[in-house]
Amino acid sequence: MYATQALTQLVPLAADELDKNKVTPGVLGFLVFAALAVGVWFLMKSMNRHMGKVDFEEAPDPAAQPGDTGGDPAQASSGAGTEAAGTKAPASGKG
């Protein structure tokens, strides 16, 4: 409430000095922009730290058998034959 009262007190003073041809954001605009830039920098730094902790290793496909050399090698590598054989791999990989 005090900030709005202070701003309403300053608005009539600024109206006398306002140049209609040159309106700039001023110091307050710069401070807000700088605060946003610093906030984004800290968020990116935090995101990089969290992404560095991620240890992702893709689990092997349970439908693919490692010793299976028979059949078409293109279907074995792409997994195209899993639905045709009647076994459907789980979408989430958790089972």
Automatic annotation (TrEMBL):
Residues 74-95 have a biased composition (Low complexity). The chain crosses the membrane at residues 25-44. Residues 56-95 are annotated as: Disordered. Keywords: Membrane, Transmembrane, Transmembrane helix. The lineage of its organism: Bacteria, Bacillati, Actinomycetota, Actinomycetes, Kitasatosporales. The keyword Membrane applies. This is Uncharacterized protein.
